[in-house]
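Each record in this resource describes a single protein on a pair of labelled lines. The shape at a given residue is found from the number at the same position. The record below illustrates this layout:

***
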Amino acid sequence: MKAVDLLFQRNMPRWIIFFIDMGICLCSLTLAYLVRFNFSIPKVEIVAFPLVFGMVLGVRAISFYISKTYQGIVKYTSSKDAQRIFIVISIGSLIYISINCIFYYFINHTFPIPFSIIIIDYMATAFLMISLRVMFKALYLELTNPNKEKRSVIIFGAGESGIITKRTLDRDAGTKYKVLGFIDDDSNKQGKKLEGTTIYGIERLDDLLRDNDVSNLIISVQGLTAAKKQEIVDISLNHNTKVLNVPPVTNWINGELSFRQIKKVQIEELLEREPIKLDKENIQEQLTGKTILVTGAAGSIGSEIVRQVIRFNPKKIILLDQAESPLYEMEMELFDKYKQQSYEIVMGDIRNLERMENIFKTFEPQIIFHAAAYKHVPMMENNPSESIFTNVSGTKTLADLSVKYKAEKFVMISTDKAVNPTNVMGASKRIAEIYTQSLSKNSNTKFITTRFGNVLGSNGSVIPRFRQQIENGGPVTITDPNITRFFMTIPEACQLVLEAGAMGKGGEIFIFDMGKSVKIIDLAKKMIKLSGLILDKDIRIVYTGLRPGEKLYEELLADQENAIPTHHKQIMIAKVKEYDFAIVSSSINDLIDLFSKQNNQSIVKKMKELVPEFKSNNSVYEKLD
């Protein structure tokens, strides 16, 4: 067996550490006398050795035993161990001073231990006990994890979080990493050293990655902007360097960071934008003390609306969904986080008039957030009857009941696919928009529509699918190399929904600033790189062709629509064609009646009559245009 294994395979017995510490104390006291008397100790001092050494070593032994300094695992010595040793040595030296005072004032007017000896002994003992432990730990780390075998990393951020990150790497021998340098924007720090490691400016990052074999770049800065994070990630990925992220301090286990908590940067973090500024007073006025119904409450959008709304202390939230397991999970989340809030978990299908009427009669909701819908384009293209039954008939049922039971507001979650629809799903959502808009002119209930594009991490979105394909070794499938999409985070979208709902006066269609559209091919390539894989070597991309009804790019406004700005720079009002409610209601009833006939051609034909701009793309229904 190797010597290193014999030395470090098990922890050193506590009694050995105790006697080593006592030996250090003996050596320190001897050294103190030699230094004090220039290596020629007077006989009078030597005569006093039995008393002095007995007192000093006795106090040290008792203090070590009481404080348990010998119980720490030496090869894992930490700053807390060093702090404890320093305190114990300091207390022991103060006891010597007290003994001197007692002898001088109450016994024989002499100092048994010269004060200079106490000072030298104090410094020598503290230094030797701490430094030997640190040296033993360094030896352990080097022998068990040689420096030449370690992989280089760079830490972005030379603040407190960066220091903790470096210490975490140093402490965790299993990581096999060494910190090559820090990167920091603060010009006052650049060029200096932090715990022996140089701090560089961000302009040096590209050179450092090019000239060194850096396996990882760790972002330790808390609250780094998405734009800055994007810049850092792009530079790192160009050199095939993985990018890791230190979690927020609140997520550290028992307030201490471990290497296992440092995770890969996710693509969602790079698509985030600056935090939204909300008119919280207006939202508070709209929601506080109100009974609120959220449909589709177990879905990605509906559940986040619940999380956002519950912070404004409503009187009660009714969570409505037909998905049993996700609804149960949502109930458990609310139970864990919001026990003091009033909420009701209700299973039900929005297409069932009797069930919905019972909910409205029982709870009398004042504000409805309608997020329940079928949203997958290919699924609805193959099942048009289900699309109109849920997205049209279900919405109509809820809207009619909102009027009947005098709800204050009805906020419908729509989609950018309702603009110039090329598929059944988008057309069904546009028909729902038309109905609620026209109904708003004939009721006291304010009907408000919000439109936005894809949300990051929603059920069935492209990012979770890409992630799963990458984990499975590929290939990553993309319908078309030129396809683009707008993306928004779920919390961001739901915050804007609350803001639009609060400012809405009835009949508006609010559209959200989705930022720049993203090429899906670029998204896939970046996700592959973030996973530490090489495109066309470790994993490949395959093009499958546009699916039925799918667009190359999405729009937020139809050609004939204009946008009116609001007080919120990320929210606009779409000026859309107005419809007569009587005509719309009659036509939509005719459409819903077609469900019983289950004739897809007839259903889609009627949808095209209701929405003239609905032009099918890559679909069997193109012949109806």
